[in-house]
Amino acid sequence: MKRAFLIVLAAGAGLAVVPWLGLPAFYESILYLVLHWIALATSWNLLSGYSGYFSFGHGAFFGIGMYTTATLATRFDIPFLWTLPAAAVVAALVGALLGAVAFRVQAVRAELFSLLTLAATFVVATIILNTPIDGGPGVYMSAVAVPQIGPTAAGTFYLLALGAAVLTVLAALAVYHSRFGTGLFAIHDDEDVAEVMGVPTYRYKLGAFALSSGLAGVVGGVHALFISYVTTGDTFTIAMPLTVVLMAVLGGTRHWAGPIVGATAITLLLYAFTGGDSAIIGKGLTGLVLIAVILFMPQGLLGQALKWWSARRDAPAAPAAPAHAEAPAASAHAAAPVAAASARPAANAGEVLLRAEGVRKSFKGVHALRGVSLEVRRGEILGLLGPNGSGKSTFINVASGHYAVTAGLIEFEGRRISGIPAHRIAQGGIARTYQIPRPFAHLTVLENVALPAMFGAATLDRQTAEAEAWQWLAFTGLTERAHALPADLNLHQRKFLEFARALASRPQVLMLDEVLSGLTPSEIDEAVALIRRIRDQGATIVFVEHVMRAVMALCDRIVVFNRGEVLAEGAPHDVMQRPEVVSAYLGQAMEEQAPVAPASAHAVVPNAGKELAHA
């Protein structure tokens, strides 16, 4: 990251000498527009590219910055440069206010968020047009003094745009390499999983929205003086946000430098055709280029170039892991100190760690949980069993915060956790896997495992989290796949990736939701051995599973669910012999249909119980 920072600063310093080269003002104006669009596209990308919340309202914050500067400079005679911080603050506050409302509503995602931000643009324009801020005729800024920064007025505007572009790019670069950026990329891929793994999604989205809006406000303030006449009709248009989206997508939204490539290419392309009196052809060609990129290079020009470069660089040999992660045989010892941080002294073994009382969960009238009460004791493996649809996975979901409980109480270490955000539950020491693996699709295997180490109970810095991730990759046998994307893994490896992610957060309670489903018998044996190793390090495990031989081999106690209620609990062999448990799995003995042979009907129960227990 330091190298990239230095490159950006060096490029900015080099470009700063352009006004003193004696170029015609026309070229400085063209360069101004290139830098102007770079700043706008990069600021948009901070929210929409990183987190996936596509905003069509970027023009609103750009316009707020323009009108803030125009109003302060013309009506209050505030020097132009002093209006720029105010433009940033006002735009950021409006963005934060809009985000505070929108991000509270879980349904406002994807196209709904895009439409909401687009509507906000027209609301802001209407307010400004019908108040003294504008009033109809617009705001003239011809009397505002242009600061004496460059040798000419055109040079000054160029330097102001350069400063805004460098500031925006540095902000994008800093976020890209920070835990803030890692959290935003996780939100982009799977927001619900990111929250459950400890990412404070609401706070991160709000921060990204405010930062994006504030930077757009600065660019708007500079542009207000550049055009010298500000009107709502020219400012709050759909063309501006669409152009910004096009530029960012063309360059690549997953990289901090993508908008730079896209904005530069499109601006020069448009003005090359405009200069040749072929503006319509230029716009049409730009659209065709965008279509081609979306169809054949969805990662954008820069993203595709980096992919090609990475493939050529890594072709001779697979990337090497750090020395401490090379030997899977020793990985258990390497990871043992890490796991020890989440374990308590043996004297506390058996104490109640997690307690649920009368937990209910309903989905629009469907009662998935009907007053479930159970306890999880420190150091044990508790199995949750039951037919499909009995409420096992729903209990995992409410205990981890993925769903909110409808009624009831869940306590962890004596503290109530039902009703608090999922990221706080994760940071408190609860981790879970998913029945169907849900890795972050655009993060590598290493990044997937490092993320919960950064945001879970461990709360490590980025470098330490990556070192810890290598340990857990070795522990689960995924070291050689560290730099692969999850799509390149088979089901067995994705299941073990779920293990590694959950363990990296250093949880006190690890909830495994059908981690053996879909695996072959030999892969199940590997997974059972891995769970034993986790248990040997002092972990407390809640184990939801249908593979009975694994349940009988691993669990200290089991709780059987049926129709959202606790049917039975106790030692595995005892519970699985109970007639009501056998009935829940296999159905009622058909006594009414076979009255002549009652003995044989009753004999089904113990035999079925043995079959269940040893399956």
Keywords:
4-stranded antiparallel beta sheet; single chain; ABC transporter involved in vitamin B12 uptake, BtuC; 615 residues; Rossmann fold; alpha/beta
Write the layout of secondary structure elements.
Layout: H1 2-15, H2 25-51, H3 58-75, H4 80-102, H5 110-129, E1 139-140, H6 153-176, H7 179-196, H8 201-227, E2 229-230, H9 232-235, H10 239-251, H11 258-275, H12 279-296, H13 300-314, H14 331-340, E3 352-363, E4 366-377, E5 381-385, H15 392-399, E6 407-412, E7 415-416, H16 422-428, E8 430-432, H17 445-455, H18 462-475, H19 491-504, E9 509-513, H20 521-536, E10 540-544, H21 548-554, E11 557-562, E12 565-570, H22 572-575, H23 579-586, H24 598-614
Helix pairs in contact: 1-6, 2-6, 2-7, 2-8, 2-10, 2-11, 3-4, 3-5, 3-8, 4-8, 6-8, 7-8, 10-11, 10-13, 11-12, 14-18, 17-18, 17-19, 18-19, 23-24
Describe the structure.
- The chain is α/β, with parallel strands linked by helices.
- It folds into 3 domains: 2-249, ABC transporter involved in vitamin B12 uptake, BtuC (Orthogonal Bundle); 352-576, Rossmann fold, CATH 3.40.50.300; 577-615, no CATH class.
- The chain is 58% helix and 11% strand.
- It is built from 24 helices and 12 strands.
- It has helices spanning 2-15, 25-51, 58-75, 80-102, 110-129, 153-176, 179-196, 201-227, 232-235, 239-251, 258-275, 279-296, 300-314, 331-340, 392-399, 422-428, 445-455, 462-475, 491-504, 521-536, 548-554, 572-575, 579-586, 598-614; strands at residues 139-140, 229-230, 352-363, 366-377, 381-385, 407-412, 415-416, 430-432, 509-513, 540-544, 557-562, 565-570.
- Strands 8-9-10-5-11-12 form a 6-stranded mixed β-sheet, with helices on both faces.
- A hairpin with a 2-residue loop joins strand 6 (407-412) and strand 7.
- It is elongated.
- The model is unreliable at 323-347 and 590-615 (pLDDT under 50).
